[in-house]
Write a structure and sequence with these properties.
Length: about 140
């Protein structure tokens, strides 16, 4: 009986552990700083690549979906992160690879949605400030 309980406890411990994806380092193409193939913790297949931006000399790190072994939808990345120098871009690349492998796509999508919401809130706040300034100027004009 004790052996049976130990087996169930061990099995429950295995289930409680976070799933982990796999990472394979790939040879970077011309103009790329780094490239990895990642099977995420939730089973999605992505290529993470860091490339030099042509115009400003910065770098962009992106996670691009792979379907049946082919890189697809390069124009629709899971996320793209921009950095000014190579060291920061390489660090961001490694972070994105780790997050995808350990946590999966859902975390990256949630962070992207949060960033978009913060961006829209900043725009809305700027609009409110403009309306308040216009209302204040109108009130001063009426009172003067």
């Amino acid at each position: 009986m004790a052996r049976f309980k130990h087996g169930l406890a061990a099995q429950a411990a295995e289930v409680a552990q976070a799933p982990c994806g796999s990472v394979r380092t790939c040879m970077p193409y011309a103009g790329e700083l780094a490239r990895h193939r990642v099977i995420t913790a939730d089973g999605h297949d992505y290529v993470v690549a860091t490339t030099r931006v042509q115009g400003d000399g910065g770098f962009v790190t992106g996670a691009y979906p792979v379907t049946r072994g082919y890189l697809v939808m390069v124009r629709q990345p899971l996320c793209e992160l921009r950095d000014a120098n190579a060291a920061a871009a390489h660090e961001r690349h490694e972070q994105l690879v780790r997050v995808l492998a350990e946590a999966g796509v859902q975390l990256v999508r949630a962070r992207r949605a949060l960033a978009a919401r913060h961006h829209s809130e900043r725009i809305e706040l700027a609009d409110v400030r403009i309306v308040r300034a216009a209302a204040s100027e109108a009130a001063h004009a009426v009172l003067a």
